[in-house]
Structures
1.
Amino acid sequence: MTLFCVGLSHHTANVETRERFAGHAESECILRSAGCAEALLLTTCNRVEVYGASEKRVSTNEIARCLVRGIEKDVHEYAPAFYRYEGEKCVQHLFRVASGLDSMVVGESEILGQAKKAYEAARSSCTAGPYLHRLFQRAFRVAKHVRTHTDITRGLVSVGSVAVDLAQRIFGQLSNCKVLVLGAGETSERTARALASRGVKDLRVSNRSSDHARELARLVGAQTVPFEQWPEQSREIDILITSTSSETPLLTSENLAPMLRDRIDRPLFIIDIAVPRDVDPDVNEMEGVYLYDIDSLQSVADQSLRLRRQQIAAAEEIIAEHVADFVASIARGLNSVARAAEHPSVADRSLRASEL
Amino acid sequence: MDRYLLIVSTLCFLAAIVRTILSLRAGTFQRSQFSFLAIGLGFIFQTAFLSIRGQALGRCPLTNLFEVFIFLAWSIALIYMVVGPAYRLSLMGAFTAPLVFLLQAFALIAPIDLRHAAKAPANSWLEFHASISIVAYGAFGLACIAGVMYLVQERQLKTHQLHSIFYHLPPLSDLFAAITRLLWWGFVLYSLGLVSGFFTGGPLPRVQLVAAIGVWLLYAAILQGRHLRRLAPKRVATLCILGFTAALTLLWGISFSAQTHSLP
């Protein structure tokens, strides 16, 4: 029995090609049409992959034909987009995928959930047998190991999530933080939503257009504040998100200083996502004030990405150890799997027990 | 024999430092159990050393500058063991180990372990005064370490340059809360130590008394400034470092002059 993986991803195919092969293909189809003993289909926006186990070699073209959407069955012109890994290489590839090393954003954790979902689907449709069961269970363990022992998931790589993460680095628990959203732009809305999802209860929205303010307040569960009153609010808030279309800075060191006078022991985190900027950069020099504009948030996101890339070597080492161990264990286990296959009821029981 | 225990203890703290440096160089600064275990082991050997030394002396081992430094290092490790897990500041170990290592390494290398020719009679007030004051110094030492952590974290947030260590440091607010707690503990213990000094029976050396009151006033001023919201957290953190440096200098001065006066 050979383990294999056939697929295409953002490394090898553009989005049109990925869409073409991410149709309604099901594992059963692959099993029936191509003659695999076990098969599992993993589809995400960045990859379409079939993991299988078979006695005889199933060609890449046969699998591609099962995956193609619609009635078009000529897959030859797309052949270069497909990759194929067998045996140890297949194991290594899945471990890298599950750990987020093969993802477009290195270290992203969504792929692990998607792999688990794909495994659950294959298990419930009984297309995943003992080989894929062991392979995927180990892959989930490897992913956890990599995340725990490296910084591959450290830091955040999108502007909105960086802002929220920084807020937590300053305040710890966000449940007691008071947040004022100045301006009702899309990014403000996303950031406010992210803060609310991390426990912020006191959200306030202020905008020149009161209709827009009310709409945003309704969307994020905030209260509205008349635009002319926002400077007063600044005395008591902890986080200020600004994204107005003002041509001149709304906040400068001069007008912020009186607002900070009574709050010397409480930091103020300002997220300025307006272009042109709403807050004078000199404000960052004031004690207890942490100002991040769109460029600095992007810069932090880039630093996080660089940090994650530095972790790839460490993660690859962990994966290599697991691959060697898994290949050895599967070789040792072949006899017992073969015995179990002769007594399916025993195999089922042992699998279920291990799944628990 | 007892010095060997101290050497092993110092090596344990060195191991914690090496581990931290290796993690930092690899860019994978991890919150691991290693630092806590290494410091825990170092603490056990410190305790064993102090216990043997105390039994040999028949009193609290605070008879010379060497013992004072070891007792101080022990106090810092003790408070770290108590405070670290309680306030989710286990990473403090990475910052605590270098300070304890420096104190012990200095004590081992410098010729300050001078035995007194005559065994001084035990004075319970004096022992209480000395030991409680040094535990207070331990709390101030930890506050100083938390202050360093605060300044590192604050600097990275201000400059927008976030390194691997940033993601492992506690939030600024948590650090500031820890600094405040440690300052209060230290201040209360130091006050007890200061007051008990008046009951020791001996004549009080004027310079040392003035310096000790000066340190007490400095910490009182920091806490008052904090309480009245006159001092920004960054200044409190900086003052914690300055305060501990002043306290350490005073401690050295007291021990040095006591040693000089008691020498035959």
2.
Amino acid sequence: MGIKLGEKVTVETLTVELSTATELTLSGTLSTPTAQNEFRRLLQDLHAQIVAARTASFAVNVEALSFVNSSAIRAFVDWISRAAHAGYTLAFKTSPSVTWHRLSFSVLKSLAPGTVQIVEATAGAGGGASP
Amino acid sequence: MSVTQGERTLKLSRHEAAVEDARRFAELAVSYCTPECREAVTLAVCELGENLIKYSAGGDEANAGTIGVSVENDKVRVRAVNRVTSREDADRVSEIVRKMTVSDIKELYRERLQELFANPSLPRAQLGLLRMAFEGGFRLTCVFEAPQLQIIAERACTGA
């Protein structure tokens, strides 16, 4: 399932939107196996699109992604690995008010410091609702 | 296995949507607690619930196991009980929990993510218990009384 510019894909409680050619916006929650599988497939397709377009840097806005299970964390690990091999960077826009953003993205960055950037939103600026 | 007084309990069905049921159950069980506590309990219930659905024994039974949530004296407790397939499964979980009590939890989490990063084909993420401790601030213990495995996660819940 490829994702087109401006298209909003909803999988159960997860919403995914390719807001610009170089930015993906994720919102809602991700907890069921169906959503996990669709999410993983979507990221694989998106990686192929990024490589084909020779995009040097890609942004992922997760400010309004309030809850994910461990499978989603693993999907991010796999994406970072593929990005590192392909040579593009991933800039995650996170919310300081969401615990899993604050804690897990700093560890994810340590896996590939040259590939991952964390851009933390200023407190109170959009997204970041509790699960 | 003992039941904590005042504990709200969910019998988790084996249907995949049960994880979403578990998330709603967690939100209701601690709806009066602090946002930080609600976030942590939701994480714990979802991770334990997913493990129950994936790994508990007795596939012909309607329920994968139970998850209980109780709040008492500024402490929240999440308790998962299920039947395991083998003693080895229980030992494996016990060893992970033991390691978590004697190690730097952030370092353990980082090590596991590093393993997954280096070996994308690893079949199991095995991040759930680590996230509960690292992100959720829970202290974990487990008890095995064949064939039942009980995992207990506790943390402070001030301001409830």
